[in-house]
Write a structure and sequence with these properties.
With 365 residues, the chain is mostly helical. It folds into three domains: 2-86, no CATH class; 91-226, Helix Hairpins; 233-277 and 293-351, no CATH class. It has helices at residues 2-12, 29-37, 47-53, 65-77, 89-122, 126-129, 136-145, 148-151, 156-165, 173-188, 197-229, 233-239, 246-255, 265-272, 296-312, 314-325, 330-351; strands at residues 18-21, 41-44, 82-83, 276-277, 280-281, 284-285, 289-290. The strands form three sheets. A three-stranded mixed sheet has the order 1-2-3. It has a two-stranded antiparallel sheet with strand order 4-7. It has a two-stranded antiparallel ribbon with strand order 5-6. α9 (156-165) packs across α10 (173-188).
Length: 365
């Protein structure tokens, strides 16, 4: 490829080269980094721009590799691209760790849903005894005697002994014995499916083993992210905003990169696809919505960050209440506060300041 580029440049009297590519999936990363090592500038063309412009040249919706290359080259000539600027290694590591964490979060949720399905099929009364199926006592129950048939011949003392065998601390006591009695009563009148007990018993043990393995991996990744954030001075600044947790800060630094590159919070919002978009034509005026043309993970954690801040941070709680008093809905207020959070974060980073609040912070029980 390099020889072809140099040959084409020699034939046309060119010495400087610009390579444009679509950042689709993971396929472009290695090539882009290699081109930069060769001293060739790389720019990225949004796949949506390619999709929208593919009919400009031949008025046809057809798509093939040769046509895509021409469309990308045309967009680059017109300046419709963003420069590819690799981040410092620590930011790349944070982004990689966050991407991996998202995968394991999805796996954990999927396994949890499978376990809930299993409970609904084979022991539907289980969740009337345990409000949360993933609590310590509930997990110990599913491991020791998940099926109603296994519980029916037992006494409350035998159930407590089974919990202890699973390594549960404080398995007994008044509350433990009461919970065992309630469990036995639920098992005695259960309407759960009972004709596949052997297969169901093996299935729940496999699901629990995989779920606990996913939880251990997530705990390890939390520690890895903590260690990575300790290497970034910006993380300490962001932690001064009470309510921003490790995962949110890691997502900000991993998905958005070095926040010192941004001049205004609006740039961060655009990066996340949270900038506003409106459809208007003649007398028609459509509803204003967010564009969603950006990093979906960054968009997700900015939203979750504001939800947490409204509950834990005094200033955001006050602003949320004021927005609602002015007539904004809860969701509209949350989206407005996402913009405020973006401006606060970029302002803190640009000025090298930490966050301070004039309002007393809510006490944590």
């Amino acid at each position: 490829m390099l020889q072809w580029i140099q040959k084409a440049g020699g034939e046309n009297g060119k010495t400087a080269f610009l390579v444009g590519m679509e950042p689709t999936g993971h396929y472009w990363h290695n090539l882009a980094d290699w081109l930069l090592e060769q001293g060739i500038e790389v720019v990225l063309v949004n796949p949506m721009a390619t999709h929208r412009n593919k009919e400009n040249r031949d008025n046809s919706p057809s798509k093939n590799d040769a046509k895509d290359a021409v469309v990308i080259a045309d967009l680059v000539c017109r300046g419709c691209y963003t420069e590819y600027a690799p981040q410092a290694p620590v930011f790349d590591q944070i982004k990689t760790a966050m991407g991996a964490r998202e995968y394991w979060v999805e796996q954990s949720i999927s396994l949890g849903n499978r376990i809930v399905r299993w409970i609904d099929l084979y022991f539907p009364e289980f969740r009337s005894v345990f409000k949360e199926w993933h609590g310590d006592r509930a997990i110990a129950t599913l491991k020791a005697f998940a099926l109603p048939a296994a519980l029916r011949p037992l006494t409350a003392e035998a159930v407590v002994a089974g919990w202890r065998e699973q390594g549960m601390r404080r398995a007994g006591g008044v509350s433990g014995k009461a919970k065992a009695v309630a469990l036995l009563h639920a098992a005695a009148c259960s309407i759960g499916k009972s004709n596949t007990d052997d297969a169901a018993g093996r299935d729940i043990l496999r699901l629990l083993a995989m779920y606990e393995a996913a939880q251990r991996i997530l705990e390890e990744m939390q520690q890895e992210l903590e260690a990575l954030l300790a290497q970034v001075p910006l993380a300490k600044q962001l932690r001064s905003l009470h309510g921003l947790g490790t995962i949110t800060i890691a997502c900000l630094l991993g998905c958005a990169g070095d926040l010192r590159r941004y001049n205004h919070g609006q740039q961060l919002l655009r990066r996340a696809g949270l900038n506003l978009a409106e459809r208007r034509s003649g007398k028609y005026k459509g509803q204003i919505k967010i564009s969603k043309r950006g990093d979906s993970m960054l968009r997700k954690y900015l939203y979750l960050a504001v939800i947490g801040l409204v509950g834990q941070q005094a200033d955001f709680k006050h602003w949320h209440a004021c927005n609602q008093q002015r007539g904004l809905s809860k969701m509209a207020s949350i989206h407005k506060l996402i913009g405020k959070l973006a401006r606060i974060v970029i302002g803190m980073v640009q000025r090298g300041e930490t966050y301070w609040s004039t309002l007393p912070q809510p006490s944590v029980a």
